[in-house]
Specification:
22% strand; 12 strands; globular; Rossmann fold; alpha/beta
Protein backbone atom coordinates (compact mmCIF):
# COMPACT_ATOMS: atom_id res chain seq x y z
CA UNK A 1 0.00 0.00 0.00
CA UNK A 2 1.33 3.43 -0.95
CA UNK A 3 1.95 5.53 2.16
CA UNK A 4 3.68 8.47 0.48
CA UNK A 5 4.20 9.60 -3.09
CA UNK A 6 7.83 9.99 -4.04
CA UNK A 7 9.05 13.36 -2.81
CA UNK A 8 11.06 13.78 -5.98
CA UNK A 9 8.00 13.42 -8.21
CA UNK A 10 7.82 16.30 -10.62
CA UNK A 11 6.63 16.59 -10.35
CA UNK A 12 -17.42 39.67 -14.41
CA UNK A 13 -20.02 37.34 -12.59
CA UNK A 14 -22.11 37.52 -15.75
CA UNK A 15 -19.05 36.71 -17.79
CA UNK A 16 -18.56 33.50 -15.87
CA UNK A 17 -22.21 32.57 -16.26
CA UNK A 18 -22.73 33.27 -19.92
CA UNK A 19 -19.40 34.00 -21.52
CA UNK A 20 -20.02 37.71 -22.08
CA UNK A 21 -17.18 40.01 -23.10
CA UNK A 22 -17.95 43.23 -21.21
CA UNK A 23 -15.21 44.33 -18.83
CA UNK A 24 -15.81 44.62 -15.09
CA UNK A 25 -15.48 48.16 -13.73
CA UNK A 26 -12.09 49.32 -12.45
CA UNK A 27 -8.68 47.66 -12.68
CA UNK A 28 -8.54 43.90 -12.67
CA UNK A 29 -6.86 42.13 -9.76
CA UNK A 30 -3.72 40.17 -10.57
CA UNK A 31 -3.35 38.21 -7.32
CA UNK A 32 -5.83 35.64 -6.05
CA UNK A 33 -6.06 33.14 -3.21
CA UNK A 34 -6.24 35.29 -0.06
CA UNK A 35 -3.58 34.28 2.47
CA UNK A 36 -2.15 31.78 -0.05
CA UNK A 37 -1.66 34.27 -2.88
CA UNK A 38 -1.16 33.28 -6.50
CA UNK A 39 -0.32 35.63 -9.36
CA UNK A 40 -2.56 35.05 -12.35
CA UNK A 41 -0.57 34.67 -15.57
CA UNK A 42 -2.30 36.96 -18.06
CA UNK A 43 -1.75 37.44 -21.82
CA UNK A 44 -0.59 40.98 -22.54
CA UNK A 45 -2.45 42.69 -23.94
CA UNK A 46 -5.85 41.07 -23.57
CA UNK A 47 -7.60 41.23 -26.93
CA UNK A 48 -10.89 43.10 -26.96
CA UNK A 49 -13.83 40.74 -27.31
CA UNK A 50 -11.75 37.57 -26.94
CA UNK A 51 -12.59 34.85 -24.41
CA UNK A 52 -9.58 32.95 -23.04
CA UNK A 53 -9.25 29.40 -21.78
CA UNK A 54 -8.45 29.19 -18.07
CA UNK A 55 -5.88 26.64 -16.88
CA UNK A 56 -5.39 25.49 -13.29
CA UNK A 57 -2.03 23.72 -13.14
CA UNK A 58 -1.41 21.50 -10.10
CA UNK A 59 1.99 20.13 -9.05
CA UNK A 60 2.80 16.72 -7.63
CA UNK A 61 3.62 15.95 -4.00
CA UNK A 62 6.95 17.50 -3.05
CA UNK A 63 7.15 19.58 -6.22
CA UNK A 64 6.02 23.16 -6.79
CA UNK A 65 4.20 25.25 -9.35
CA UNK A 66 7.33 26.51 -11.12
CA UNK A 67 8.77 23.02 -11.56
CA UNK A 68 5.44 21.56 -12.68
CA UNK A 69 4.76 24.23 -15.28
CA UNK A 70 8.27 23.79 -16.68
CA UNK A 71 7.89 19.99 -16.73
CA UNK A 72 4.66 20.23 -18.71
CA UNK A 73 6.21 22.79 -21.09
CA UNK A 74 3.43 25.28 -20.38
CA UNK A 75 5.29 28.40 -19.33
CA UNK A 76 4.45 30.02 -22.67
CA UNK A 77 0.65 29.72 -22.45
CA UNK A 78 0.03 33.25 -21.14
CA UNK A 79 2.91 35.00 -22.96
CA UNK A 80 1.73 33.50 -26.26
CA UNK A 81 -1.83 34.65 -25.61
CA UNK A 82 -3.17 31.11 -25.42
CA UNK A 83 -4.72 31.13 -21.94
CA UNK A 84 -5.02 32.60 -18.48
CA UNK A 85 -3.05 30.41 -16.07
CA UNK A 86 -3.20 29.79 -12.32
CA UNK A 87 -0.25 27.75 -11.02
CA UNK A 88 -0.60 27.66 -7.21
CA UNK A 89 1.55 25.92 -4.61
CA UNK A 90 0.12 23.44 -2.13
CA UNK A 91 0.47 23.45 1.66
CA UNK A 92 3.93 22.53 3.04
CA UNK A 93 4.08 19.56 5.41
CA UNK A 94 6.60 19.20 8.25
CA UNK A 95 9.27 18.22 5.71
CA UNK A 96 8.44 21.28 3.59
CA UNK A 97 6.96 19.09 0.88
CA UNK A 98 3.98 20.79 -0.69
CA UNK A 99 0.79 18.79 -1.13
CA UNK A 100 -2.87 18.95 -2.13
CA UNK A 101 -5.55 17.52 0.14
CA UNK A 102 -7.33 15.56 -2.59
CA UNK A 103 -8.74 12.77 -0.41
CA UNK A 104 -7.90 10.59 2.59
CA UNK A 105 -5.32 8.71 0.56
CA UNK A 106 -3.39 11.52 -1.13
CA UNK A 107 -1.68 13.49 0.10
CA UNK A 108 -2.40 15.08 3.48
CA UNK A 109 -0.30 12.50 5.30
CA UNK A 110 -0.10 14.55 8.50
CA UNK A 111 -3.80 15.36 8.83
CA UNK A 112 -3.54 19.11 8.35
CA UNK A 113 -6.84 19.18 6.41
CA UNK A 114 -6.48 22.29 4.26
CA UNK A 115 -9.67 23.04 2.34
CA UNK A 116 -8.09 22.87 -1.09
CA UNK A 117 -11.43 22.39 -2.83
CA UNK A 118 -12.62 25.70 -1.40
CA UNK A 119 -9.27 27.40 -1.99
CA UNK A 120 -8.88 26.39 -5.63
CA UNK A 121 -12.56 26.70 -6.46
CA UNK A 122 -12.70 30.17 -4.91
CA UNK A 123 -9.78 31.33 -7.04
CA UNK A 124 -11.40 30.00 -10.18
CA UNK A 125 -14.66 31.79 -9.34
CA UNK A 126 -12.82 35.06 -8.68
CA UNK A 127 -10.80 34.89 -11.90
CA UNK A 128 -13.91 34.12 -13.93
CA UNK A 129 -15.65 37.13 -12.40
CA UNK A 130 -12.78 39.48 -13.24
CA UNK A 131 -11.42 38.28 -16.60
CA UNK A 132 -12.79 37.28 -20.03
CA UNK A 133 -12.75 33.53 -19.44
CA UNK A 134 -14.24 31.13 -21.96
CA UNK A 135 -16.66 29.12 -19.80
CA UNK A 136 -16.47 26.24 -22.31
CA UNK A 137 -12.73 25.76 -21.70
CA UNK A 138 -11.68 25.60 -18.04
CA UNK A 139 -8.97 23.00 -17.47
CA UNK A 140 -7.48 21.34 -14.39
CA UNK A 141 -4.21 19.62 -15.29
CA UNK A 142 -1.91 17.90 -12.82
CA UNK A 143 0.72 15.28 -12.17
CA UNK A 144 0.55 12.67 -9.41
CA UNK A 145 -0.95 14.41 -6.34
CA UNK A 146 -1.91 17.24 -8.73
CA UNK A 147 -3.76 14.74 -10.91
CA UNK A 148 -5.60 13.48 -7.81
CA UNK A 149 -6.59 17.06 -7.00
CA UNK A 150 -7.66 17.73 -10.59
CA UNK A 151 -10.06 14.79 -10.38
CA UNK A 152 -11.33 16.10 -7.03
CA UNK A 153 -12.09 19.47 -8.59
CA UNK A 154 -14.00 17.74 -11.39
CA UNK A 155 -16.04 15.92 -8.75
CA UNK A 156 -16.79 19.03 -6.70
CA UNK A 157 -16.88 21.79 -9.32
CA UNK A 158 -18.13 20.36 -12.58
CA UNK A 159 -20.12 23.58 -12.82
CA UNK A 160 -16.93 25.37 -13.90
CA UNK A 161 -14.31 22.74 -14.81
CA UNK A 162 -14.93 21.45 -18.32
CA UNK A 163 -11.78 19.33 -18.74
CA UNK A 164 -9.25 17.35 -16.71
CA UNK A 165 -5.85 16.14 -17.89
CA UNK A 166 -4.35 13.80 -15.30
CA UNK A 167 -0.87 12.26 -15.45
CA UNK A 168 0.11 9.43 -13.10
CA UNK A 169 -2.63 9.94 -10.51
CA UNK A 170 -5.86 8.34 -9.39
CA UNK A 171 -9.37 9.66 -9.19
CA UNK A 172 -10.21 11.02 -5.74
CA UNK A 173 -11.69 8.46 -3.36
CA UNK A 174 -14.65 10.62 -2.32
CA UNK A 175 -18.35 10.41 -3.12
CA UNK A 176 -18.49 11.86 -6.61
CA UNK A 177 -21.62 12.45 -8.65
CA UNK A 178 -20.80 15.50 -10.79
CA UNK A 179 -23.99 17.15 -12.06
CA UNK A 180 -22.36 17.88 -15.41
CA UNK A 181 -20.10 15.64 -17.51
CA UNK A 182 -16.41 16.56 -17.66
CA UNK A 183 -13.98 15.72 -20.44
CA UNK A 184 -11.24 13.43 -19.06
CA UNK A 185 -7.79 12.62 -20.48
CA UNK A 186 -5.88 10.15 -18.30
CA UNK A 187 -2.19 9.52 -18.99
CA UNK A 188 -0.22 6.87 -17.11
CA UNK A 189 3.01 4.93 -17.47
CA UNK A 190 2.60 1.17 -17.28
CA UNK A 191 5.86 0.83 -15.30
CA UNK A 192 4.87 3.37 -12.62
CA UNK A 193 5.95 1.91 -9.25
CA UNK A 194 4.81 4.94 -7.21
CA UNK A 195 1.20 5.10 -8.36
CA UNK A 196 0.70 1.74 -10.10
CA UNK A 197 -0.92 1.82 -13.51
CA UNK A 198 -4.63 1.12 -13.56
CA UNK A 199 -7.49 1.75 -15.94
CA UNK A 200 -9.98 1.93 -13.09
CA UNK A 201 -9.87 5.75 -13.20
CA UNK A 202 -10.95 5.75 -16.82
CA UNK A 203 -13.68 3.20 -16.20
CA UNK A 204 -14.95 5.19 -13.22
CA UNK A 205 -15.18 8.43 -15.15
CA UNK A 206 -16.76 6.76 -18.15
CA UNK A 207 -19.52 5.66 -15.77
CA UNK A 208 -19.80 9.10 -14.14
CA UNK A 209 -20.05 10.81 -17.53
CA UNK A 210 -22.64 8.32 -18.75
CA UNK A 211 -20.57 6.68 -21.51
CA UNK A 212 -22.12 3.52 -22.88
CA UNK A 213 -19.44 2.05 -25.15
CA UNK A 214 -16.05 0.40 -24.94
CA UNK A 215 -12.64 2.00 -25.45
CA UNK A 216 -11.09 1.77 -28.88
CA UNK A 217 -7.61 2.62 -30.15
CA UNK A 218 -7.24 6.01 -31.79
CA UNK A 219 -3.51 6.29 -32.49
CA UNK A 220 0.01 6.44 -31.10
CA UNK A 221 2.34 9.17 -29.86
CA UNK A 222 5.96 9.49 -28.79
CA UNK A 223 5.62 11.19 -25.40
CA UNK A 224 8.66 9.75 -23.56
CA UNK A 225 12.13 10.47 -24.90
CA UNK A 226 13.62 7.61 -22.84
CA UNK A 227 11.56 5.02 -24.73
CA UNK A 228 12.01 4.03 -28.34
CA UNK A 229 9.37 4.86 -30.89
CA UNK A 230 5.75 5.85 -30.41
CA UNK A 231 5.24 4.18 -27.03
CA UNK A 232 1.97 5.89 -26.08
CA UNK A 233 -1.23 4.07 -27.03
CA UNK A 234 -4.20 6.40 -27.37
CA UNK A 235 -7.77 5.21 -26.88
CA UNK A 236 -11.19 6.80 -26.53
CA UNK A 237 -14.41 5.62 -24.88
CA UNK A 238 -17.41 5.25 -27.18
CA UNK A 239 -20.94 6.37 -26.42
CA UNK A 240 -20.03 9.36 -24.25
CA UNK A 241 -22.35 12.35 -24.03
CA UNK A 242 -21.51 15.78 -25.37
CA UNK A 243 -19.12 17.38 -22.91
CA UNK A 244 -18.00 14.07 -21.41
CA UNK A 245 -15.29 12.43 -23.52
CA UNK A 246 -13.15 9.94 -21.58
CA UNK A 247 -9.77 9.13 -23.14
CA UNK A 248 -6.77 7.07 -22.03
CA UNK A 249 -3.18 7.55 -23.21
CA UNK A 250 -1.22 4.53 -21.95
CA UNK A 251 2.54 5.19 -21.90
CA UNK A 252 4.04 1.72 -22.37
CA UNK A 253 7.11 1.21 -20.18
CA UNK A 254 7.12 4.67 -18.59
CA UNK A 255 7.54 5.27 -14.88
CA UNK A 256 5.97 7.79 -12.52
CA UNK A 257 7.81 10.75 -14.03
CA UNK A 258 7.99 10.18 -17.79
CA UNK A 259 10.72 11.97 -19.74
CA UNK A 260 8.22 14.10 -21.59
CA UNK A 261 9.02 14.73 -25.23
CA UNK A 262 8.42 17.95 -27.17
CA UNK A 263 5.22 16.33 -28.45
CA UNK A 264 3.59 16.34 -25.01
CA UNK A 265 2.60 19.97 -24.73
CA UNK A 266 1.10 20.39 -28.23
CA UNK A 267 -0.63 17.00 -27.99
CA UNK A 268 -2.41 17.63 -24.71
CA UNK A 269 -3.17 21.25 -25.59
CA UNK A 270 -4.71 20.20 -28.88
CA UNK A 271 -6.80 17.60 -27.05
CA UNK A 272 -8.04 20.28 -24.64
CA UNK A 273 -8.97 22.72 -27.41
CA UNK A 274 -10.78 19.92 -29.25
CA UNK A 275 -12.92 19.19 -26.17
CA UNK A 276 -14.91 22.29 -25.16
CA UNK A 277 -18.10 22.08 -23.18
CA UNK A 278 -21.05 22.40 -25.60
Amino acid sequence: MLTRLAASAVAAVALAACGGTSDPPGPRPTTFGGNRPVTLQVPEPLEDGKLYPLVLLLHGYGANAFVQQSYFGMKDLAPNGDALVLAPDGTPDSSNRQFWNADGFCCDFEGRKPDDVGYLGGMIDDVMAAYPVDPARVLAIGHSNGAWMSYRMACERSDVFTDVIALAGNTAAVPCEPPQPVHILHLHGTADDTVPYTEANVDAWAAKDGCTGARAATGELDLDTALAGAETRMSSTAGCPAGGAVDLWRIEGAGHVPNLSPQFRPAVWSWFLDHPRP
